[in-house]
Write a structure and sequence with these properties.
This protein is of the alpha/beta class. The chain has 11 helices and 13 strands. The protein binds oxa(dethia)-CoA.
């Protein structure tokens, strides 16, 4: 029997912009309160990438550079960079290409992947497949969004939710049974009715009218998305555990997408996990879309141990959702 090659996460890097946008700041901008934001979402502050002409690639590049330094590799060794994002620098070329140039990853090919808040999970699955194929040895998967570029800061229903960040993982082949073990990913295009950016794509290209109508901002029917998210993220996480005979005791950590503390709690309850096994940093960074899950891995890295079972779970625009089982590969 040939040995199974799995894709192990061997390093994690991240970038957080310095500028903070607190609930107190938002109280001065829209009709909201710190109390409402904290009790309805769990968020206290978020990071914002300020400055004209600064795009998502400016966050991807330092996150990937940090990961290379931690692993002791040259960016030239990277075979492929996948950037999960819904806020690319431009419609084209891909943000991954621009970031590769910034970090000197001259031997890599790169591409962007659009799956909103589930983007990191979708990209991780693609990156793992490249490793499992045997053709590539070092694949970087980055989740990064500059949500402040598509948020309407006069709309209190969305502007309190989002923040900017990037976080990335390095995938390398492993024959000892560590890495990405299984993944269930789903999508449903009818979700576009509830969560989308209305204009700026091929259907409604940017025009004076679309700009005047504020159609280049996030449009979200919060309550509907909330209902789908609670069910979608909890169901798929439970399904993944059942499929792989994982009990709550077998799982060391749940790494949930950070959109709303109430959605996170519902997923953890469904999996039978107590709060101390759930990574939560929504209070500090808000919803950073594709960056939330790897940002948690980055923040909790020192507490992770080789062999631990970790379940990553996400739900987002599309709709897209999924859960992924990872066996952690190293002690830091
Ligand atoms: O990550 C991608 C996927 N997205 C999600 O998972 C987000 C899912 N949705 C949610 O997390 C929640 O629906 C929100 C946090 C967006 C909203 O919370 P909610 O408990 O569903 O509130 P709601 O939309 O039902 O609004 C309740 C009330 C409304 O007022 P009325 O109509 O009851 O008078 C809103 O106008 O709260 C009002 N409201 C606010 N009040 C103060 C909405 N936003 C605010 C605000 N501050 N920022």
């Amino acid at each position: 029997m040939p040995t199974r090659v799995t894709a192990a996460i061997t390093a994690v890097g991240a970038f957080l912009p310095e500028d903070k946008l607190t609930n107190a700041d938002l109280e001065k901008m829209v009709d909201t309160t710190d109390e409402w934001i904290r009790t309805r979402t769990g968020i206290s502050e978020r990071r914002i990438l300020k400055g004209v002409g600064r795009g998502t690639s400016e966050m991807v590049a330092p996150a990937v550079k940090q990961l290379c330094e931690k692993r002791g590799i040259d960016p030239k060794e990277i075979d492929c960079l996948i950037v999960a994002t819904v806020t690319p620098d431009m419609v084209f070329p891909a943000t991954a290409n621009i970031a590769c140039e910034k970090i000197g990853a001259t031997n890599a090919f790169g591409f962007d992947l659009s799956a909103a808040c589930s983007g990191f999970l979708f990209a991780l699955s693609q990156g793992a497949a490249l490793i499992e194929s045997g053709r590539y040895k070092k694949v970087v998967v980055c989740g990064s969004d500059k949500m402040s570029s598509i948020v309407d800061y006069t709309d209190r229903t969305t502007c309190v939710l989002f923040g900017d960040a990037a976080a990335a993982v390095l995938l390398e082949p492993n024959t000892e049974g560590y890495g990405l073990m299984d993944s269930i990913l789903r999508s449903d295009g009818s979700g576009a009715n509830y969560l989308r950016m209305k204009a700026g794509g091929a259907k409604y290209p940017a025009s004076v009218e679309t700009v005047m109508a504020k159609e280049h901002y996030i449009y979200q029917e919060g309550q509907s998305v909330f209902k789908f998210a609670v069910k979608g993220m909890a169901d798929v996480s439970a399904e993944l555990m059942e499929k792989n005979n994982l009990s709550a005791n077998d799982v060391s950590w749940l790494v949930p997408h950070q959109a709303n503390l109430r959605i996170i709690d519902a997923t953890a309850n469904r999996m039978g996990l107590s709060r101390d096994k759930v990574m939560i940093n929504i209070q500090k960074y808000g919803n950073t879309t594709a960056a939330t899950v790897p940002l948690c891995l980055w923040e909790w890295e020192k507490q992770l141990h080789q062999g631990e079972n970790i379940v990553l779970a996400a739900f987002g625009g599309g709709f897209t959702w999924g859960a992924t089982w990872v066996k952690w590969a190293y002690n830091s």
